[in-house]
Each structure stands twice: as C-alpha cells, then as structure tokens.
Design a protein that fits this description.
The structure is a single chain. The chain is α/β, with parallel strands linked by helices. It contains twelve helices and eight strands. It has helices at 11-15, 25-35, 60-66, 82-89, 106-113, 117-133, 156-169, 185-199, 216-225, 253-262, 271-285, 292-296, and strands at 6-9, 42-47, 74-79, 97-103, 137-143, 173-178, 204-209, 230-233. The protein has an eight-stranded parallel β-barrel with strand order 1-2-3-4-5-6-7-8, surrounded by seven helices. β7 (204-209), α9 and β8 form a beta-alpha-beta unit. α6 packs parallel to α7 (156-169) and α7 (156-169) crosses α8. The structure holds zinc ion.
Length: 304
C-alpha cells in the first residue's frame, strides 16, 4: 500500500480561525513562511470571509500579500461566496487554488453560512466558474459529510449529488469534511470506495478529518485502504475550539506525516521542519498544542 500521498496544510486557515485568540498578522506570516519551506506542496493560507463573521481572519488579504511562498507550493485561499472571490482576485497573482465550501446538511449550512444548500450551490457554481475562468484550480469542500451534529445521519446520495454539481461547475477536487469528528474507520472505507465509484476516476478525492474524538488517524488509514491519496491537516493540531470544551482540531500534520512515513508512503515533507513550525506556533501562542509528535518528537530509529 505504499506510494505517494498529497497533503494540504490548512492550519493557517482552519486552525487560526478556530483558535480562541486573534493571532497577530506578523505571527501568521512567520508561520506560513515556515510551513512553506517544509516540503508541503499545498498550503491553505487564509480565507476571504467577512471580517465581522470570522474576526480571526480579518487580515486575510494582508497575510496573503505578505507571505513568501516558493513557486512550487500551491497556495489555496478559502472563498465563501462571490464577494469573497472578488476581494481575493485583487491579489490574483498570490494564489493558484480556491477552496469553496458548503455543508451536506441543511441545518449546518444554515448555521454556518445562513443559506440553504441549494442557495449555496448556486452561488458556488458561479464562484467556481469564475475562478476556473481566471485560470485558478478549484476545490469543493463538503462539510459534515460523515454526519451532522444537528441532523445526525447524512445520506450519501445527497453528498454525491452536491459533489456532482461542484464538479460540473469546474471543481477538480472534492474534499469530504468530518467537521465535528463523527466519522469512524468502517464508514470511511466504504465511503471513499463509493465516492470513487459514484464520482468517476478523474476528480481528486480528499479526506479532511478532525480529531475531535481521537479517530482522525484511524480514519486516515481506512481512507488509504479505499485508495484515497489526498489529505488535509493542521500543524500542531491547531483548531481546537473552546466550545464544546475539549474539542480538538484537524488531525495534526506532523502526526499524519509521521504515520505515513513509517508506513512507507512518500509525502515530500520534512517532518522535523513541520515539528519546528508547530513548536514556533506554541511559542507564539504561549501555550502547548495538541499534536502527539510535537510532544514525543519524531521517531528516530538510529538513536534508540
Ligand atoms: Zn475543518
């Protein structure tokens, strides 16, 4: 089961937006610049959501303008709607991918973006169409795809029909988000097998797991077994939300990379460099972060 795996680091967006404090712009730029030199090939730098909705990312445009990212790293920005794309396009030469999102359940989508799924889809079809017209690559992220904290079970047929509309609009990648950590490995394996069969061989399928209930890496293993080779994660396991208490963030990039490398997969990523970036985030935030590899250190077979 060994070959190469693509990882998109989403800490500067999914992580920073869910941390309790607002991280200073200088610190964000420093951390993005560190991450951009770890061998990661995909980096989600920020989002263009309204500042009053997500004050943690109100400086998104400034961060995007100031970071220094090598040419071989694809920079992604999260775009919620047409206005967001318009704002991002003022910095068109600073990124190469857009990431558009909606939820697989009506209740979650309504709470998150105050629209119905259909309203979201209509808007995102225009966003993706415009972005692709600008020469940008488009990713569609379907949140709460494995279960919704408000509605419970999410019918897969609904997820596939949302994915099909995003693909038809021009998305070349679909990510399935386990936004609140409800997925389990048995579900994940059949989910990715079915997604591939339903959505065809061309589209890139990506797993976006949160480690809310500690099942993130088990879910990664199940997705790998089902043929998934694209993942999203946050360095330092950033994104721990204060409500509900004890909830943790995305799976940690350093834990994901450590496991993949030990299993014989190539990622192109320098694990020590990711750990160093997470350590720097700890210093800048002034508190310990949740990743296991950060605490234990990378495995060094030659030292023990
Ligand atoms: Zn997420």
């Amino acid at each position: 089961m060994s070959d190469s795996v693509r990882i998109r680091e989403v800490g500067p967006r999914d992580g920073f937006q869910n941390e309790p404090e607002i991280i200073p712009t200088d610190a964000k730029v420093e951390l993005v610049d560190l991450l951009a030199r770890t061998g990661l090939s995909r980096l989600e730098v920020t989002s263009f959501v309204r500042a009053d909705v997500i004050p943690q990312l109100a400086d998104g445009a400034e961060v995007l303008a100031r970071v220094s990212v090598p040419d071989d790293v694809a920079v992604t920005v999260l775009i919620p709607n047409e206005k967001g794309l318009e704002n991002a396009l003022a910095l068109r030469d600073r990124f190469s991918e857009v990431n558009c999102f909606l939820s697989a359940s009506e209740t979650h989508n309504r709470k998150n973006v105050n629209r119905s799924i259909d309203e979201s889809l209509s808007g995102l079809e225009r966003v993706i169409g415009s972005a692709v017209g600008e020469g940008l690559r488009a990713e569609g992220v379907i949140s709460v795809a494995f279960g919704c904290p408000y509605e419970g079970d999410v019918p897969r047929e609904r997820v596939w029909s949302i994915a099909r509309r995003l693909i038809e609009a021009g998305a070349s990648e679909i990510a399935f988000g386990d936004t609140t950590g409800m997925a389990n490995p048995v579900q994940v394996r059949s989910y990715f097998e079915e997604a591939r069969a339903e959505l065809g061989p061309e589209v890139e399928l990506t797993a976006h797991f949160h480690n809310t209930r500690g099942q993130g890496l088990a879910n990664v293993f199940a997705a790998l077994e089902a043929g998934c080779r694209s993942f999203e994660s946050s360095f330092g396991e950033l994104g721990g939300c204060p409500v509900p208490a004890g909830a943790t963030g995305n799976i940690a990039t350093e834990d994901l990379v450590s496991m993949l490398h030990e299993m014989g997969f190539a990622t192109g990523i320098d694990l020590d460099a990711v750990v160093a970036a997470a350590r720097r985030a700890q210093e800048l935030l002034g508190r310990p972060l949740g990743s296991h590899t950060l605490v234990a250190g990378p495995i060094d077979w030659h030292r023990s």
